[in-house]
Amino acid sequence: MAAEAPPPSTEQHKLPTPEEFTEVQESAEFGELRRSYRSFAFPLTVAFIAWYLLYVLLSNYAGDFMGNKLFGNINVAFVFGVLQFVTTFLIAWWYSRHAAAKLDPKAEAIKTRMEGGA
Amino acid sequence: MSPAITHVQLAANEASEHRGLIITLFALFVVATLGITVWAGRQTKDAADFYAGGRQFSAFQNGLAVSGDYMSAASFLGIAGAIALFGYDGFLYSIGFLVAWLVALLLVAEPLRNSGRYTMGDVLAYRMRQRPVRTAAGTSTIVVSIFYLLAQMAGAGVLVSLLLGITSDAGKILIVALVGILMIVYVSIGGMKGTTWVQMVKAVLLIGGTLLITFLVLLKFNFNISDLLGEAAENSGKGAAFLEPGLQYGATGTSKLDFISLGIALVLGTAGLPHILIRFYTVPNAKAARKSVNWAIGIIGGFYLMTIALGFGAAALISQDEIIASNPSGNTAAPLLALHLGGVDSAWGAILLATISAVAFATILAVVAGLTLASSSSFAHDIYANVIRKGKATEKEEMRAARWATVFIGVVSIALGALARDLNVAGLVALAFAVAASANLPTILYSLFWKRFTTQGALWSIYGGLIVAVGLVLFSPVVSGDPKAMFPDVDFAWFPLKNPGIISIPFGFLMGWLGTVLSKEEPDAKKYAELEVRSLTGTGAH
Fold first, then answer.
1. Between vectors from CA B133 to CA B132 and to CA B136, what angle results, nearest 5°?
2. A30 and B536: CB-CB below 8 Å?
3. N or C: which terminus of chain B carries fewer CB neighbours within 10 A?
4. Is the CB of residue B520 less than 8 Å away from at least one CB of chain A?
5. CB B385 within 8 A of CB B210
6. Is there a contact between A8 and B532 if contact means CB atoms under 8 Å apart?
7. What is the ipTM of this complex?
8. Residues B112 and B280: beta-carbon distance below 8 Å
């Protein structure tokens, strides 16, 4: 396992064995990391795509509603468009906060143990 | 009609009078970036340097470079033009191009950085039979990149005719060839390190130029966006409809479907674009990859917000006739706007026009370099090293193959660019997005998250998505049967939509599922354990 310079298409660093990977994959700790990632990222992805599609569909089939002027020449469509920007910024910030607090420490712990304990 | 035409001629004359200035600014950019390239080339010693810039860029640097790679001629010229001509409908591009980044952030960037080394194929082939999957990944990387390259080359052709007063075909082809040669030099000498620095310089210039124009537009309207929109609506001759959805896509049921198709392709395409994906290998770890996406979302979001000012500003200050006469697709609205802001007859107008044009050139050049790097990397690493040489090539041989592939792809794109010089820029890029979302995204997501996924599923998904997407484009009004088509004089278009996404993207996902459930082979559980643990924890990533 301690090879220094194997051929280019294989790993150059010391890597755990396939058995160790399987063991970690089945461990409760990794299960917790996976759940913590997936239960956050998957529903959020569905939500922002639905929100974006809602905007696309409203633009297509609810022209009168989108054309309502709110103030001056600013109409509903314009506000909806800008809101897509706002939600994108917010989701990026929210996910990064979740990842830093909930995912990074768990991932780091597993990585350190696997690379150090081989 | 005649006043419009004289205006355009005026613009062209103005531009040619100050051609020296434009060329000087552009030459400055070329000399500076060539200097960077040579410097980076000296530091490029092994494959990790060539493909991934040594993985030592900071999250901010890479965020800037990602933005530089992403904000192409389509964003700058195409969106401004689409908004200037179709008002609110053009704004969909800006929104879709931005929201798409969330797919990359939440699902793709970090796992990819953790489990791949140099290319998209690294991740797709991780737990599959290497040779067929790498061949497929390499093929789709090159096809997507060439669609994207076409758009950039078309943008280059459009620009020169307006800016340098070159209207002859020979002149345009010469410019396309110059762009091609420069990109070969950037990529083959500077590798990822050189290309990344070029992207950063370009991103700063583009943001700077756009900020300046936005500021000047807003200044004209006392920073009152409502007044700007009102003036744009009035000057466009279309009234309130200009600010509402539907002007471009609202006419018929078919065009409405086209709008949905485009919308889906935009939002799902980004996370399947090879030249964007390989940027995540240039940072030290997944955390830095996440941070660079966040920087990119901030920078790109800010830029797309400014396209409101560019597009509606052009509509408010320039007549529709003049915009259309200059370029039927509106691709020159942004440079024309610069000229008008400075004053059509004044030196300021000429200087602004020259600056914005040089920025647009720099944009095209940098994006083209990024695309060439992605496709030559994939050729050398996926196809040459792992398929042809079966993993036995040395790093030196692999890098040599990459450099030759760069020259080859450069020559091919010069040839194609010369053909595509009159096509619609933003629309062409949307096609690249549709192909990426159909052929690449399903396989990336299945590979990372679906335990049962098999080699056959990967192949059906990549080739199925690719063939259907490209096939539908071939028989769409983009290629024939429409006055604005590639071949306007013939008609073999039986697919009514201009963007294939609504059919080809679900088809790519469906084929990946079908190929998997119908395959006789057992998925490699050990390899999936390895991929899953690595992708989520970064174990073994370097």
1. 90
2. yes
3. N
4. no
5. no
6. no
7. 0.91
8. yes
